[in-house]
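User: Hey, quick favor. My workstation is busy. Could you predict this chain's structure for me?
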Amino acid sequence: MFHVVNNAITHQLKRSIKKEVNLSEVEQIKLDYAIDALVGDITKFVLLLIFFLIIHRGIAFLLFCIVALPLRNLTGGMHMKTYNTCFLFSLFYALLALIMMENFSMDSTQLVYLSLFSIIIIFLIAPITSKSRPIYSAKKKIAFKIISSVWIITNVVVIFYIPNTKYALIAPWAIMIHSIQLLGGFLWQLFQKQKQMHLKC
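Assistant: No problem, here it is.
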């Protein structure tokens, strides 16, 4: 049901813009992708927020988003093919971070190791993008790696300054789970490439 509403909104937006602006084929492809991504992200965010408010974890979810969304947008990761599977993955992604927050904690040494692990993963394999996303230049990819690394370091510094807060508890797990799904996205793409190579042989 939700994907039907999402598709209706994106279709109407695309129609309205096409009537007002004359775009080339490449510009239209970029615009379609941007609208699909933006509307999809907004509707998923609203649904997820409602869910976490119902289970009394709304603030924790918002804190998770503050940390994870910039990393997700800059470095990508695992991508689902449909709106519904993407929503379920996002739900699992956020829910797992909150479960880990409530059951486990990290000391300062573990936090430093986590940040180093995440930065190394980002510089080695990010960004992991979906097939529908426009291809980034090498310059943009490096910029995304640097900005993401700075964002991780910023969060770690903030955690050291405000320990024993909900933000300090959720942020490390948001970073950790993002890094794991980023690695998962890389391994999945690698598997798909090898599969295609075997089919061609």
